[in-house]
Amino acid sequence: xxxxxxxxxxxxxxxxxxxxxxxxxxxxxxxxxxxxxxxxxxxxxxxxxxxxxxxxxxxxxxxxxxxxxxxxxxxxxxxxxxxxxxxxxxxxxxxxxxxxxxxxxxxxxxxxxxxxxxxxxxxxxxxxxxxxxxxxxxxxxxxxxxxxxxxxxxxxxxxxxxxxxxxxxxxxxxxxxxxxxxxxxxxxxxxxxxxxxxxxxxxxxxxxxxxxxxxxxxxxxxxxxxxxxxxxxxxxxxxxxxxxxxxxxxxxxxxxxxxxxxxxxxxxxxxxxxxxxxxxxxxxxxxxxxxxxxxxxxxxxxxxxxxxxxxxxxxxxxxxxxxxxxxxxxxxxxxxxxxxxxxxxxxxxxxxxxxxxxxxxxxx
Length: 364
Ligand code: KG4
Ligand code: ZN
Hints:
By secondary structure, the protein is an alpha/beta fold. It has helices spanning 40-43, 51-73, 92-109, 118-130, 168-178, 185-193, 218-235, 240-272, 289-301, 311-314, 319-329, and strands spanning 5-11, 16-25, 28-38, 82-88, 113-117, 136-141, 146-153, 156-162, 278-282, 305-307, 357-358, 361-362.
């Protein structure tokens, strides 16, 4: 019988502090515990993530999250075979908090240390949840990221396209702020959109006229601002129905852009890998039902299977970080204590870097 391999994972690259225990054994891969503490309340008054507050809060609760994960998984540190930590990309203060915590644990226990790319965590999640075989196409769409990735192996990614400015979740959050809706904006905008008319306001579909899979969402956000301001100028304020119609128009525009760019990415994928057919999404925006169903429809039309992992593993968590270390441990050496925290860390080392700066700081 193969010996079970158990990894403790840590994640602190944005505004969630997380610890998880993931075990690989004859029974397959199991998430024994996944603890996530959100910092949402700490940042609410500032309308965005404040890096300094985030870093301090991560440092304060990381050890508590680890203790809780160990308890819930019913294991002790001595049972763990390795320590995995997000070493980038992200807000550097938070990443440093996690890396220092992981180094301390590795030094004290003598266990191997794995510095994991946060984006690789999201990108490999469909293998943790659905045992998806390489190579597959992934759309990572959240508050901090938006990219199409051809996932070919544990450390082998090709970026087919991505946003050149805002990530869609960031745009949902900004639109919510413009319309006086609560944060995080995505769920609030989706709820309002359900009772809105998507055709009332003609909002742009940025970059649809440009070939390829790159995307842009900041112009759409500006168009929402102008629509709001012209209504306020004409009527002296916004009616509830105006708010709903703007939300519906904005959501329809994002869904249409993502669906069309996904169609192009799927064609590229099928050209490059004709024998493999899986399209996966991950990230908070994948929770949006109209976006998810638009992506699923395109996938069906292209004859490609569609997989969206459960939401708790789609959004930021540490189980995905532990899982990457499980795959890496079987193929590559562990990192040394000289592991450094990286604010930028593109998965695809060949494609040119993207412009812009998102919720997580500089775009990867
Ligand atoms: O993956 P995530 O938890 O964190 C990172 O950004 O890494 O994603 C959070 C983002 C937020 O911007 C939030 O507004 C958006 O995902 N989001 C949604 C929905 N639920 C969360 N966007 C659109 N529709 C939703 N239902
Ligand atoms: Zn993330």
